[in-house]
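Here is an idea for our session: we take a single protein and study its fold together. To get us started, please write out a protein record for me. Once you have written the record down, we can walk along the chain together.
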Amino acid sequence: MARVNDVKRRLKAGEAVVGSFCNLPSPEAVELLGWAGFDFVIIDAEHGPQSPETVANMVRGAEASGTTPLVRVATNEPQNILRYLDTGAQGLQMPMVNGPTDAQRAVGAALYPPQGRRGLAGVRAAGFGLRESVADYAAAANEEMLVIVQVETMEALVNLDAVISVPGIDVVFFGATDLSSSMGIPGQTRDDRVVNAITEAGKAVMDAGLVAGTIVGTAEQAVEWQERGFRYISTNFASVVGRAMQAFMEGAR
């Protein structure tokens, strides 16, 4: 059957999970994050150069170290999404979901019929059709697929109630950087206006029975958002490593 999605199971059990974006096209970076204890890795094909072939190898890196591989795609196009999910990624993170139509399109591309419209074939995600019948795989895959939609504009906040009413969504992830830009204060992700907007919107998400998530730059921020009830927390591999190496050099010179 389809691989068990540990992150989805833990979220359903009410637990919090912590992961990282990885926009570097490196299976080893993903594998490292798994060995470091991260619950999931979001393979970033929106802000990274990853092709489906590269993503397949990054998924293998996640599987090798026991972390859950998710993928963020660049466009909300079913055929584009299909190629990335067929690699074996266990979740779809869709950026720039500004209304219910965007959300419905993402859910439809992530799930097989009858819940969605994803095309079915004997691909890697299905064990190439050798592990089980594709029908059995499709049913199990729908249960294990994690669907995350990103709310990161003022338009999306206005339409939030309509977005979270779309069946099939598991997590609503608030993108602080793009939201700050949409609010006219680009990059000021710790500004009270941004933090308060995400906090209030997150309450609506949680009241609807969904999981709220956001991005953080430090472990302290991860704890802070969990204290607000957010249970899907992600940092960014390149940012954390870059700052750590920069601090090392500042101390070494």
About this structure: Strands lie at 17-22, 40-44, 68-72, 91-94, 146-151, 171-174, 211-215, 232-236.
